[in-house]
Amino acid sequence: MKHTKFQGVYTSTSERTIETAKLLLGERGTQLIHEENLREISLGEWEGPTHEEIKVSHAQHFQHFWESPHLYEPAGGETFQQLMKRAATVLDKIVHQPLEGNVLIVTHAVMLKAI
């Protein structure tokens, strides 16, 4: 990617993805487009506790999250189906932008899997 010119760089609104995009771009100066719909899956009550704590408090849900996503039911968060819909919406938006050439998307693990 070092020598690739990007006409658009989309990031989630997370500082982590914004900083990663800046590192990837280096001195190219391409404008970043912050896109809320590229944010990571919302984990609801799981935001904050460690994996080990969640394994104890939500054992079956935790197993479904990692091994059977179609069975995962979030505790106040987002389902995989909701995330997939959000991913499709944001990709459709990006594809229909009036940019020609390479586009870089910097986002999170579960969103990348959805894409």
From TrEMBL:
Where does the chain cross the membrane? none
- Superkingdom is Bacteria
What name appears for this protein in its UniProt entry? Answer: Histidine phosphatase family protein
Gene Ontology CC? cytoplasm
List, alphabetically, the Pfam families matched.
His_Phos_1
GO MF terms, alphabetically ordered: phosphatase activity
